[in-house]
Amino acid sequence: MTLPKLELRGVWKSFEDKEVLRDVGLTVGHHDVVCLIGSSGSGKSTMLKCINLLFPIDRGQILFDGADITAPGVNANQVREKMGIVFQAFNLFPHMTVLDNITLSPRKVHGAAKSRAEAQARDLLARFGLSDKIDEYPDRLSGGQQQRVAIVRALATEPELMLFDEVTSALDPELVSEVLNVIRGLKDVGMTMVIATHEMGFARDVADQVCFLDEGRILEHGVPDQIFSSPQEPRTKQFLQRIIDAGRL
Amino acid sequence: MREPSSIDNVGGGPGLLGPPPAPGRREEGTRAALIAFASTIIFTIVALWVILASPNWPKIQQQFFDWGHFVEAFPAILKGFWLDIKMFLGAEVIILILSLIIAMIRSLRGPAFFPIRALAVVFIDIIRGVPVILLILLMGFGIPALQLPGVPKSALFWGLTALILSYSAYTAEVYRAGIESVHESQRMSARSLGLTQGQALRYVLVPQAIRNVVPALLNGFVSLQKDVALVLVLGIREAVRAADIYAAKTFNYTGYIAATLLFLIVSIPVARFTDWYTERDRRRKQSVTA
């Protein structure tokens, strides 16, 4: 049996007196797509930021390729080089062109030559249909284009794991699908992903595993059909009912 | 601080004094300009009348506005003013760099940086807590008196250093406010891409912060341009000190008016530029969100 790509063991995290993650455990296999669902404030976003080591955890372990990345003395920057994360909004650096946004990390962190980094950026932009935006500044792009560029920028560091933190929540409804399609494309090429999302149809469609978070705990997890068709926990049922009532599933 | 907008709109016309009227409203704009012009004239006449009619005016005129004394005092004051300008420009460059470094240190996160972060806070607290003039006196007279080997003994050097330190403490807080005004996601994005804290500050946060605080920095410019005169307490012959010497010699204060005019000639354009820049920046931001 191979090691899982990512494993969370009994992770606890609190901000001041508020416990945001309580005893969270999760195993993500290679090429797995895991969707995190739950209402706002349930801990989805914090969980992703802990995995990316943007927040230190209070207790527990996070293992990446079997190595404990939350152990003392681990170089967070080296860990992050293998992960990409995209946030809800304000991802792109507004004072840089699309090209500079994408090549910043390859050049400054990975030490790639300018010409190589730019060639790679051009390839990626072409792959995602963004070639004509290469010299634009972020404020000239639509929200959907901005998020797609943010994904391209994360991919430019050649991550082995991608984390998505409600990347479509701040978008106009008609721009949501272009971003989700990019993520679907990543699934097709076998990218391992953990995705916090409010798009239930998308989660059902793309996930190998769905986790329902409630007040910082993973209350229920399983394959999409099980979670969406026959949820066991009353809180899960209640949450899904609200989503259905809102016409979002 | 921005002047009240009523001052900007004196004249109501285009250019540095305020936004140009919209093209479709030219007639209205002309009318506004005429009203502003007329009210300015009336205001000036009334103000002059009040001053000139005061019983002491002839005496004041003689003591403060004497052309003969003006001509006589002017060369020394101008020479002093040139020193003010040199001090101002030199100090400003150092302040802009030093304060940015202090602000960056203060913005570092994580327990490992606690000592230097604490040092930056202590520096800012102490320097801001002491009146500038006291700092100038302490350093300008105190440090040369220590007679330390290899340390400059010039009062001008240490007076100016005091001014630089004081302004750097304030300006560092301006920069820091700018850095903190950048959205947290920007810092996280940078860090998640593997950039170190220093790289995130240098490539992502500081460039955006500077853009946000340019008006405040320009405001500091105007302030410093006048405050360099404070080194006069060390006996340095800059413009105000030169006017002082002239007044002591002749019992005529026209030199102060000469120095005032020289300071205004430099500070008013900078103030106008600050307003123009702020306005342009505001419009640019509006056009982006529109």
Number of H- or I-type helical stretches of chain B: 11
Helix content of chain B: over 70%
For the record, the count of structural domains of chain B works out to: 2
| Main sheet properties of chain A | 6 strands, mixed
Mean pLDDT of chain B: 86
CATH homologous superfamily name of the largest domain in chain B? MetI-like
**Could you say which overall geometry of chain A the principal axes of the C-alpha atoms support?**
globular
Label the structural class of chain B. Answer: mainly alpha
Largest sheet of chain B: none
How many strand elements of chain B? 0
| Average pLDDT of chain A | 91
- Helical/strand content category of chain A: alpha/beta
Order of helices and strands of chain A: EEEHEEHEHHHEHEHEEHH
C-alpha termini separation of chain A: 36 Å
The proportion of residues in beta strands of chain A is 15-25%
Number of helices of chain A: 9
Computed over alpha carbons, the radius of gyration of chain A is 18 Å
C-alpha geometry of chain B: flat
Written description of the protein model:
The complex is a heterodimer of chains A (249) and B (290). With 249 residues, chain A is α/β, with parallel strands linked by helices. Chain A contains 9 helices and 10 strands. In chain A, the strands form 2 sheets. In chain A, strands 6-7-8-3-9-10 form a 6-stranded mixed beta sheet, sandwiched between helices. In chain A, α3 (98-108) packs across α4, α3 (98-108) runs parallel beside α5 and α5 runs parallel beside α6. Chain B has 290 residues and is mainly α. Chain B is flat, with a radius of gyration of 24 Å. In chain B, α5 (114-129) packs across α7. Chain B is built from 11 helices and no strands. Chains A and B meet through α2, β6, α3 and α5 of A and α8 and α9 of B.
